[in-house]
């Protein structure tokens, strides 16, 4: 896998995360579940920001960034707050994994950015009932 | 430029690869195939690869943090519930990192000094500061590492500490 492929994979994952967090936010009452809503909104904005950074990095390489799919499959049902939280955690864990892979496949400034993204994603899991792990983002390396 | 690829994909082998890279002329030719690369290597300081040097430095740092957390948990039982998860993670990080360090290059834990304090909150704050320093060291080493998989494991350790720090600071 080349650095460009790894960046494109990360971008594809961010397209999915932006979509899923958008749906989860739309399923959540801003007034009745205000904390959950705020956490979803923050995650949505942070994933959008990461997506835009990846687009810029890929364009800088002279490559066309991968486009978002029209829709993505949700990781679980989202009709109750508990299901929304579970879906958010699954999505965030996938992002953490993606950034773990990106760290391994990049060097220099791209890797530095990926290390920060991994860090932020791992911490974001805690907002959705995630717990600290010894080695977040290394699931495939168990 | 792409990072140096590694053929094996486990956390243990990713760290072991750092030690493996220090073999070659340094290997003793031990016949035991089950021995770890680190155990089979005779390493002189001039033969340690940059990734092994990073691991040695990180082991020394984790040993200091672990000694501090262990001491604080022992002295202040009320801090045990909140610090035990961090302590377990520090132990796991040390155990895995140690696999990347040839025996001859392993820093001595006895060299670490833990400053005493009778103030519980000051002790807790010291543990948090120490973990923060380790997190930054892991992240910096991840950027510097030659091996991509080694970098991934180091970044993961930094992220794990980031999670503990977010919990300890009450602001995930």
Describe what you observe in this structure.
The complex is a heterodimer of chains A (142) and B (172). Chain A has a single domain, classed as Ferritin, core subunit, four-helix bundle (Ferritin, Up-down Bundle). Helix content of chain A is 66%, strand content 0%. Chain A has 4 helices and no strands. The longest helix of chain A is centred in the N-terminal third of the chain and has 27 residues, at 34-60. Chain A is globular. In chain A, 49% of the residues are buried. Helix content of chain B is 61%, strand content 0%. Chain B has helices at 11-20, 37-40, 50-75, 80-98, 120-144, 148-168. At the A-B interface, helix 3 and helix 4 of A face helix 4, helix 5 and helix 6 of B.
Order of helices and strands of chain A: HHHH
Q: End-to-end span of chain B in angstroms? A: 35 Å
Radius of gyration of chain B: 17 Å
- What distance lies between the first and last C-alpha atoms of chain A, to the nearest angstrom? 20 Å
**Which CATH class of chain A?**
Mainly Alpha
Average pLDDT taken over every residue of chain B: 79
Write down the Rg of chain A: 15 Å
The parts of chain B where pLDDT drops under 50 for at least 5 residues are 5-9, 22-45
Structural class of chain A: mainly alpha
**SS strand fraction of chain A:** under 5%
At the fold tier of CATH, the topology name of chain A is Ferritin
Q: How does the major sheet of chain A shape up?
A: none
Tell me what the CATH architecture of chain A is: Up-down Bundle
Give the ordered list of helices and strands of chain B: HHHHHH
Features:
heterodimer; A: 142 residues; mainly alpha; Ferritin; 66% helix; 0% strand; B: 172 residues; 6 helices
Give a concise summary.
Chain A is an all-alpha fold. Chain A contains 4 helices and no strands. The radius of gyration of chain A is 15 Å and the shape is globular.
Write the layout of secondary structure elements.
The complex is a heterodimer of chains A (142) and B (172).
Chain A: H1 3-26, H2 34-60, H3 81-105, H4 108-125
Chain B: H1 11-20, H2 37-40, H3 50-75, H4 80-98, H5 120-144, H6 148-168
């Amino acid at each position: 896998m080349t650095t460009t492929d790894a960046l494109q994979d990360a971008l594809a994952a961010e397209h999915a995360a932006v979509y899923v967090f958008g749906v989860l936010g739309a399923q959540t009452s801003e007034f009745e579940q205000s904390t959950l809503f705020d956490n979803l909104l923050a995650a949505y904005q942070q994933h959008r920001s990461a997506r835009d950074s990846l687009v810029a990095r890929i364009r800088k390489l002279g490559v066309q960034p991968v486009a978002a799919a029209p829709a993505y499959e949700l990781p679980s049902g989202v009709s109750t707050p508990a299901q929304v939280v579970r879906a958010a955690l699954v999505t965030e864990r996938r992002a953490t994994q993606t950034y773990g892979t990106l760290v391994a496949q990049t060097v220099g400034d791209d890797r530095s950015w990926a290390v920060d993204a991994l860090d932020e994603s791992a911490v974001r899991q805690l907002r959705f009932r995630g717990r600290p792990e010894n080695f977040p983002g290394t699931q495939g390396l168990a | 430029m792409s990072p140096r690829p590694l053929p094996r994909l486990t956390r243990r082998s990713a760290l072991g690869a750092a030690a493996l890279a220090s073999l070659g002329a340094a290997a003793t030719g031990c016949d035991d195939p089950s021995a770890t690369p680190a155990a089979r290597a005779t390493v002189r300081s001039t033969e340690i690869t940059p990734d092994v040097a990073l691991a040695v430095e990180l082991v020394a740092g984790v040993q200091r943090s672990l000694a501090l957390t262990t001491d604080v948990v022992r002295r202040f039982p009320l801090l045990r519930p909140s610090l035990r998860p961090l302590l377990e993670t520090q132990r796991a990080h040390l155990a895995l990192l140690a696999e990347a360090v040839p025996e001859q290059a392993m820093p001595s834990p006895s060299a670490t000094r833990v400053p005493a304090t009778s103030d519980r909150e000051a002790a807790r704050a010291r543990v948090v500061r120490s973990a923060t320093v380790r997190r930054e060291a892991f992240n910096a080493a991840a950027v510097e590492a030659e091996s991509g998989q080694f970098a991934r494991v180091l970044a993961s350790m930094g992220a794990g500490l980031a999670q503990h720090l977010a919990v300890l600071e009450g602001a995930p």
